[in-house]
Amino acid sequence: MDFERSLELLWRDRGEARQPTRGRKPKLTLDQVIATAVALADGAGEATVSMSQIAKKLGAGTMTLYTYVPGKTELLDLMVDSVLAERDLPGPGDPRPDGWREQVRLYAERTLAVFRAHPWLRSTSMVRPVLGPGLMAGQEYVIAAVSGLGLEPRKAAAAANSIEIYVQANATLFAETAQVEQETGQSTDAWWGQRSVFWEKYFDVERHPAMTRIWESGGYDADTCEAADETFAFGLERLLDGIEALVTP
């Protein structure tokens, strides 16, 4: 993989990314190639997307695509960053919600929405992330949200990282749920419904008294989607409470 070529393509708005130079004037654009690849991945998962499929969809020869992007690895980087950019978070100087907590909630809301819309995004590595403008815009936004709290720099960075990791982890779970439902054609609620025999026949209330008390008190009454949203919101608010406690007299 040509790492610098990948960066050049990701940050093509900062300079002139190399375009096809031989033969007739190109009929495609790199953005068209990326958008087509994303649409195919949304339908069947990124692992099933091939350069030949993309070319067929665009009415071009497979080898033509390699004049726009070196290969599947670089294309996946471009796909990931393209959908992360869909969050369209406010940049420096743009209007944003009042208060740092509302700003974080906007980041979380838009990140979850992107992962739900593109379930294949769950394969994105935050250990070795795609260093494109979509990712960096999100990081800049969260850092800006917490930077006015008066935290020392390392704590501000840790707070921002904690928020990003929490949101990313939950977004990945939501994306996995969407992908499994898409692949199986069965909702998560239906999957649990098929396993009602477990609770009726195998669940031992004496070995699980805490769970039983919560169950009998209505703690598990929500459907799986509602419960997931409530769990995410609860955890995010407690995380923000903890950060706020560091700066509250």
TrEMBL record:
SUPFAM superfamilies: Homeodomain-like, Tetracyclin repressor-like, C-terminal domain. Keywords: DNA-binding, Transcription, Transcription regulation. Pfam families: TetR_C_1. Gene3D superfamilies: Homeodomain-like, Tetracycline Repressor, domain 2. The keyword Transcription applies. Residues 50-69 bind DNA. InterPro entries: Homeodomain-like_sf (IPR009057), HTH-type_TetR-like_transc_reg (IPR050109), HTH_TetR (IPR001647), Repressor_TetR_C (IPR004111), Tet_transcr_reg_TetR-rel_C_sf (IPR036271). Residues 27-87 form the HTH tetR-type domain. This is AcrR family transcriptional regulator. It comes from Amycolatopsis roodepoortensis.
